[in-house]
Amino acid sequence: MELKYKFPNDFWWGSASSGPQSEGTSIDDGKALNIWDYWYEKEPYRFFNEVGPSLTSDFYHKYKQDIKLMKEIGHNSFRFSISWSRLIPTENGKVNEKAKNFYNDVINELLANDIEPFINLYHFDMPLIMQDKGGWESRVVVNEYVKYARVCFELFSDRVKKWFTFNEPVVPVEGGYLYDFHYPNVVDFKRAVQVAYNTTIASAQAIKEFKSLNILNSKIGIILNLTPSYPRSNNPADLKAANIADLLFNRSFLDPCVMGKYPEELIKLVKEHNLLPDMIDRDLQLIKDNVVQFLGVNYYQPRRIKAKAFMPNPESPFMPDNFFDNYEMPGRKMNVSRGWEIYEKGVYDIMINLKDNYGNIESYISENGMGVQNEEQFIKDGMIDDSYRIDFLKGHLTWLHKSMDEGCNVKGYHMWTFIDNWSWSNAYKNRYGFIQLDLKTQKRIPKKSAYWIKEVVKNNGF
Ligand code: BG6
């Protein structure tokens, strides 16, 4: 078959998922509460249709069935996360044997099916006991996280060769400390900066531990959601606003994690507004010495920015949005279910930026996907015809391919996600999977996109 877009033979094809969104059985088998279990207990009305994280797609019990399906649709790699509150449920640091067995079984099952496990250590799921100690605002919690990371490396790195310290560390900053969509629902820019800073320290410290173990043929990285900040126009005011958004939401993690230092402009901005976090002398050296060895890039939507139209209300909390307004570009293509713009070229722009400004670090698309509501309406002959998802995939893969043609160091593409999963406060509103989950019966039914990706992987292109 004549292929228009051919990918390298060792390209990582697969999908990504996370513990809290797929494992379910939140407090079975010795798992302790994390902030999602707790928040749902306290305020179930904050979750779509009041569906919480207790069952999700029950990966805890159905992982064998799911891994078999992954194999069937051609996965050669799969990223999931370890749930800290499952593995180490109490303050004494003791490992939960049932959790250890579960993760060992998942890893072994993946390997038996020739699917490489990529493990992420933290996917928005702070254990409640750690949140009670101050969460990411506290250095005590940073130290506990590093101990937990070391336990994971020691338990699983004989078989797991790709590790990540965090998934999208800026999201808990935005959700939990600025915009009220994660627990603990704080709205406070200064505290948000402290949380962001401490997360970076935690990541660097975990990388240091990892390196000290000299694990053969392995590497450790971080997964960042990079949302290119496109200015409305070339007007200097728009350019300035877009640059600040980029500094706050992309470069605040990208620069320290990949280049080992914060951008001067960001330091200046933070200082000027009295937002500087508490720091320890050796921190900056730690960051410098422990950059990531590869990078996962999550990409869903761009950020479009314009200069602020009005002076902010001096009585309302000081926020990142004091520096810019979001811009709704006329004619933009939307995924209306999620309210996110679809802009396929974003993937290319991100990769070119990594090539030109970040040493062409080895990277891959670690998440990209399309959450659609009421997908049952597209059922034809018992199968969801998600041709819109196939178009979405084609569009992004085409631009990714172009970036590779131009020398970007891209190693793979993981879709979000394998099976419809629980999407935080959106719960099961929008569906992302290659595989449909029937919530009532827990039945798994491949969608049209599952058959499409299977062919793509088989041919290494399309
Ligand atoms: C990413 C996260 O931000 O986007 C996932 O890593 C998340 O956990 C995904 O599910 C899609 O976003 P949402 O909010 O629609 O679930």
TrEMBL record:
Residue stretches spanning the membrane: none
UniProt-annotated catalytic positions: E367
Biological process according to GO: carbohydrate catabolic process
Cited Pfam families: Glyco_hydro_1
Domain of life assignment: Bacteria
InterPro entries: Glyco_hydro_1, Glyco_hydro_1_AS
Keyword Hydrolase on entry: yes
Gene Ontology CC terms: cytosol
Keywords: Glycosidase, Hydrolase
GO molecular function (one): beta-glucosidase activity
Family: Belongs to the glycosyl hydrolase 1 family.
UniProt-recorded name of the protein: Glycoside hydrolase family 1 protein
Organism encoding this protein: Clostridium estertheticum
Organism placement in taxonomy: Bacteria, Bacillati, Bacillota, Clostridia, Eubacteriales
